[in-house]
Amino acid sequence: MAELRKRQELPEDVGSDDCLASYTHIYSPDLLKDQVAFITGGGSGIGLRIAEIFMRHGCDAVIASRNLDKLKEAAVKLSAVSGRRCLPLRIDVRQPESIVAAVDETLKEFGRLDILTNNAAGNFLCPASALSFNAFKTVLEIDTMGTFNTSKVVYEKWFKVCDFICLPLNASHMCMKTEIFLILTAIQNQNWFIFHKHAQRNRLVSGINLSETKTSDLILISENNIC
Predict the structure, then answer these.
(1) What's 154-197 look like in SS3?
(2) Mind listing the pLDDT tens digit for each residue in 147-157?
(3) Which residues are CB-contacts of 171 (< 8 A; sequence separation ≥ 6)?
(4) For a surface tag, which of 16, 42, 140, 188 has the fewest beta carbons within 10 Å of its beta carbon?
């Protein structure tokens, strides 16, 4: 009986790359008002849902991946449900020059960049023993090198030249030094998000068990650098 009740309380299961039919804000709808998020792999799956929730909280978004047609389709959906701007850009995170071009376009369009979500990933759904050498190399190039490449470009192009990033946190403001990379890894079949935050003077790694939390909720990690 308890298991049945728990299932009934779960958010809707969207099996395709469509936006949620409904969304209940547990935080202020304008929590991320007028901020700009750059989300790699944002045209489908987890990345699309991250973009959607950010945008439903007032954020504009750049979604970037290799498939521009899919990105354009996703951007139309995201803007329609949120009323926010969504810029689709083609990049390959293995190629730094394509990231540079995308970040330049982002800054030209929005004039700022507040949030970086490294969501792009290469996946082969098979046992490790069945992976070819080239397949494993591809996974590392996208997941590991791609994360570094994107973080470095965003830092060099924007975070490096700004003194602070201020994220509204209810009535107060959380101010963080700009030498921060936000790296989001999501394991789709387990309700875990792992947040890695690398700052100039400290390193915070936090894991949140979302088994009792709606997957459509916006999860924030607070930080002890309070201004």
Answers:
(1) HHHHCHHHCCEEEEEECCEEEEEECCCEEEEEEECCCCEEEEEE
(2) 999 999 999 99
(3) none
(4) 16
